């Protein structure tokens, strides 16, 4: 049973436009959420995170929104650049358990 | 340079053989993790260790074993009992901000 779900396996956007990647979770004990970016044959790299006490966190072109009542979070990338093309993983953790639970990933393709 | 390394990058083994994947970090992080990634899936937790000489099973520990004799090292052994060992294996570590994990470059294991 997947506790973190990324229902869109792929997304294609034009350079300069907004990319919106979505993530849903079912475990109400999750209190910290992260986004990782992954290129083929490499390990994921941390992108941005958000605590459950917030509903928005921004870092440059990247913004993560959290809707706790809907158990939904999203990553916005504005403006999108070709170098953003990668697989994006949503991950979640709960207090007391150090390991992360990952979604299945969304492949983002930014067209020049 | 501080970081986390995995070796080798590609590994081939015959069915029925045990194989050990290396993971080393010099970030002085207490916690270390092993994940497995299969095509079209997210990262699934195999084992994790919060301190030296201690480790816990993750979601898919069957057929795997680990040791944590040193803070810097967390080797993973894929045993012959693992029914489908061909996958991309990722090692990670985390420090005081345990939610943020740093990943190694991964080892692609192919069992022939």
Provide structural commentary.
The complex is a heterodimer of chains A (112) and B (112). With 112 residues, chain A is mainly beta. Chain A contains no helices and 11 strands. In chain A, the strands form 2 sheets. In chain A, strands 2, 4, 5, 9, 10 and 11 form a 6-stranded mixed β-sheet that branches. In chain A, strands 1-3-8-7-6 form a 5-stranded antiparallel β-sheet, with no helix packed on it. The radius of gyration of chain A is 13 Å and the shape is globular. The termini of chain A are far apart. With 112 residues, chain B is mainly beta. In chain B, 0% of the residues lie in helices and 46% in strands. Chain B has strands at residues 4-7, 10-13, 19-25, 31-37, 43-49, 56-57, 64-66, 76-78, 87-94, 102-103, 107-111. Chain B is globular. Chain B starts with a strand and ends with a strand. The model of chain B has no long low-confidence stretch (mean pLDDT 92). Classes of the chains: A mainly beta (112), B mainly beta (112). The A-B interface holds A 4, 6, 9, 32, 34, 36, 41-46, 49, 89, 91, 93, 98-105 and B 4, 6, 9, 31, 33, 35, 40-45, 48, 50, 58, 88, 90, 92, 94, 98-106, 108.
In short:
Chain A is an all-beta fold and 112 residues long. Chain A contains no helices and 11 strands.
* Pair of chains with the largest interface and how many residues each contributes: A-B, 24 and 29 residues
Helical proportion of chain A?
Answer: under 10%
CATH structural architecture of chain A: Sandwich
Distance between termini of chain B? Answer: 36 Å
> Quaternary status of these chains?
heterodimer
- Return the average pLDDT of chain A rounded to an integer: 94
List keywords for this structure.
heterodimer; A: 112 residues; mainly beta; Immunoglobulin-like; 6-stranded mixed sheet; 5-stranded antiparallel sheet; B: 112 residues; 7-stranded mixed sheet; 4-stranded antiparallel sheet; 11 strands
């Amino acid at each position: 049973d997947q506790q973190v779900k990324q229902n869109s396996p792929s997304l294609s956007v034009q350079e300069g436009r907004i990319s919106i990647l979505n993530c849903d979770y079912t475990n109400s004990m999750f209190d910290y959420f992260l986004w990782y970016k992954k290129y083929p044959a490499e390990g994921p790299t941390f992108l941005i995170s958000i605590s459950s006490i917030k509903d928005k966190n921004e870092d440059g072109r990247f913004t993560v929104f959290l809707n706790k009542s809907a158990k939904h979070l999203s990553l916005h990338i504005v403006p999108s650049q070709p170098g953003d093309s990668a697989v994006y993983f949503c991950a979640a953790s709960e207090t007391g358990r150090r390991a992360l639970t990952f979604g299945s990933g969304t492949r983002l393709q930014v067209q020049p | 340079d501080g970081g986390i390394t995995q070796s080798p990058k590609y590994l081939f083994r015959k069915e029925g053989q045990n194989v050990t994947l290396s993971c080393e970090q010099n970030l002085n992080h207490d916690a270390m993790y092993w994940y497995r990634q299969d095509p079209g899936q997210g990262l699934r937790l195999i084992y994790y260790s919060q301190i030296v000489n201690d480790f816990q099973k993750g979601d898919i520990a069957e057929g795997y074993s680990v040791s944590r004799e040193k803070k810097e090292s967390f080797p993973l052994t894929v045993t012959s009992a693992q029914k489908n060992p061909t996958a991309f294996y990722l090692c990670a570590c985390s420090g005081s901000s345990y939610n943020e994990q740093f990943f190694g470059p991964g080892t692609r294991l192919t069992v022939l």
